[in-house]
Amino acid sequence: MAQDIYDPAFVATLFDRCSQRYRRWSAISSFGFVWLWRKQCVDRLIGQTSIARIQNGKVTPKQPKVLQVVDLMAGTGEIWPHILAEFPRAKITAIDISPAMHAEAMIKLHGARANQITHFAANALTNDLPENTADMLVATFGLKTFNHDQQTILARQIARILVPGGQFSLIEASDPQGWIFRPLYRFYLAGVLPLIERVFLQGAQDFSMIATYTANFQNCAHMEKALRAAGLKVSMKRHFFGCATSVAGTKPIAPDAPTP
Q1: What is the pLDDT of residues 231-252, one digit of tens each?
Q2: Which residues have C-beta within 8 Å of that of residue 135, sequence separation ≥ 6?
Q3: Quick check: pTM over 0.85?
Q4: Which domains does the chain have, with CATH numbers?
């Protein structure tokens, strides 16, 4: 029987195996685009802050506070420097299904930020974070490991976790359908990357799954619909001809009840 590539146990094992190589190999294989796309993910998050403050047709004043940021499918935490550059006092709650990714993130990359980052090894679909606790929520390059049904569950989790007025931004590598160079892009993912991985990474075939996941995922269109169905305001954006797509938005603030 074929392995279900969306089974949480399969995904956790996959990322456990490649955790020590993930940061460097993803940067090299994407020609540095993953760094840019993570920054653009945070840029979209910042762009939602003014929108979120609109209540009853007016912009509410900014409230100085320590922002609570949830990073779903956090991996080795490469987005955290971008978040903390914009929100230096933020507290980050990082969720990832791979325990090895957690260890790699904290021991080798972010030990100096340990006082601002709390890690949980958990499935983002079944996490038990309290309702209405996250001011902001991000996710980078984890959406493709969810099928449509799982994306719907994830959207409901995001709506549950965010505070009213909270902002979210999610980005994922995608299949740039309609782009003139798409055949070369697909050949690179499905042909060149697996060959390089077998030659230079002791025959590993973990990163080769990127081609399969992105082809199945296509883009963030289904996630956009799922987020909207969960009651969130959301918009989708293409990055670099559709090689990545993102969704960003807010959790609406309920209007004040009419005065009797």
Answers
A1: 999 999 999 999 999 999 999 9
A2: 65, 67, 68, 69, 162, 163, 166, 167
A3: yes
A4: 8-55+62-250 (3.40.50.150)
